[in-house]
Specification:
Blueprint: H1 9-20, H2 29-43, H3 52-63, H4 67-79, H5 82-85, H6 87-103, H7 107-114, H8 126-139, H9 143-154, H10 162-173
Amino acid sequence: MCEGGTVNQDWEDRTAALWARFDDYAEDEAAEARFRAEVDALVAELPEGSPLGPFEQACAWDATGRSDLAVPLYQEALRRGLSDVSPYKARQTKIQLASSLRNIGRAEEGVALLTPELLAPSDELDDPVRAFLALCLSSLGRDREALSLTLGTLAPHLPSYQRSMANYARLLVEQEQPRG
């Protein structure tokens, strides 16, 4: 159970176990509805006003193909102070929210949400931030920027050519210098 505004490890473990079984739910509406109902049951255990509730519900709607219903829940989780409860989940929320915004035709909002994340303290979500930002940029017809961002993200992971790939990524978006 959750007490005093905090979530205990048992709740986190049960939530993680449910998500680990997500693929067991067939991709039909009835199975997806059962999955969301199980998420709702876990959320019902949370203290009133917990930002984890709308976060988990948004993830469930998003994972079952309903970005339109996920967006307001992601936004509510952030409004309720998810970054105070879990900075990691708040960053994850911004990534998933940007993706959902893109899916419903609001890619510009996704770019605005993820661009500041490029300057956030580095963690394992850096590459997903860049990948989803690239998708949002591409959806806006800003393909050179998207490709530059993608190649720049890929460069450190290459077994060789890191420096040249990073330079090529940078050159994709630099203004052409006039030849003198």
